[in-house]
Design brief:
Elements: E1 6-9, H1 13-25, E2 31-34, H2 37-45, E3 55-58, H3 67-75, E4 85-89, H4 94-102, E5 107-110, H5 115-128
Helix pairs in contact: 1-5
Length: 129
């Protein structure tokens, strides 16, 4: 398996499908879409440091372990703190955005209402890494 360049975590199956379709349509390679914080940490713990993803994109509103909690765990763990983490969520709260940036998020995106707008965000995220 080739290293994962960009890793998405979102509990909503429809959003995961749209992300996968959008990245595939852009010709993106080496990405993975997971459904929970637990699956993220299970995936990461089996990787060597050289194989860690170049960036992680998190939804905030997830059961068990939300994206904000995942962000905090990533940024306080010596192995993962250098991985840029981007937030892709439905929440337009400026307070939440500010708190995510304070906690170490590299960027904050609000999930758009159209597939075209989502593709613009996905393209920007993929080009960033």
């Amino acid at each position: 398996m080739s290293p994962v360049k960009l890793l998405f975590v979102d509990d909503d199956p429809d959003d995961r499908e749209l992300i996968q379709e959008g990245l595939s349509a852009l010709g993106a390679e080496a990405f993975l879409v997971l459904d929970s914080g637990q699956s993220l940490f299970d995936f990461l713990k089996n990787l060597k440091a050289v194989d860690l993803p170049e960036a992680i994109v998190l939804d905030l509103n997830m059961p068990q372990m939300g994206g904000f909690e995942i962000l905090q765990h990533l940024k306080t763990n010596d192995l993962y703190q250098r991985i840029p983490v981007y937030i892709l969520t439905t929440s337009a709260s400026t307070d939440l955005k500010r708190q995510c940036i304070i906690e170490g998020a590299a960027g904050y995106y609000i999930k758009p209402g159209s597939l075209n707008e989502l593709n613009v965000i996905l393209n920007e995220l993929y080009d960033t890494v």
